[in-house]
Amino acid sequence: xxxxxxxxxxxxxxxxxxxxxxxxxxxxxxxxxxxxxxxxxxxxxxxxxxxxxxxxxxxxxxxxxxxxxxxxxxxxxxxxxxxxxxxxxxxxxxxxxxxxxxxxxxxxxxxxxxxxxxxxxxxxxxxxxxxxxxxxxxxxxxxxxxxxxxxxxxxxxxxxxxxxxxxxxxxxxxxxxxxxxxxxxxxxxxxxxxxxxxxxxxxxx
Length: 205
Description:
The protein is mainly α. The chain has a domain at 3-142. Helix content is 64%, strand content 3%. The termini are far apart.
């Protein structure tokens, strides 16, 4: 049961003006209940759709009787010929047009009702799409962050290894230079017993 039908069933009265009789016409609950929309779980139209006609088409809203729906009423009310006239005159013109077309005002109300229901379903569907998209985005972002953290950790480890390798090589070279000077001094000392300093082929370290 639709929300409006439920409200009517609980005693809430829904009425429309009746220009011919000069009194409001009450619309029963079963009038709305008998025109439930086809269940639409997904709409292809984007959330920023410019014309809701596409939404109404996807919801398979039936064409209004004799093409006199809420849009036709709006066209008549907003026509240049009636725009400057008092509200009562414009309403009377619409009612006369409906009568000439054999359309009742409740039928137009029904047309507006099902369109509003379609828009509600459209909004709910787009809300689900946004929630699903946000979930996918958050999941992907979390994955990328983990990949970045793993990459940074790997490269930092590589940098540390390179640094240690460089430090080790530098230390070994410094030790080589020291040992070379020590060996050079030992060789010079040995030869110094046999040759004068000026003839010693081993230079001073």
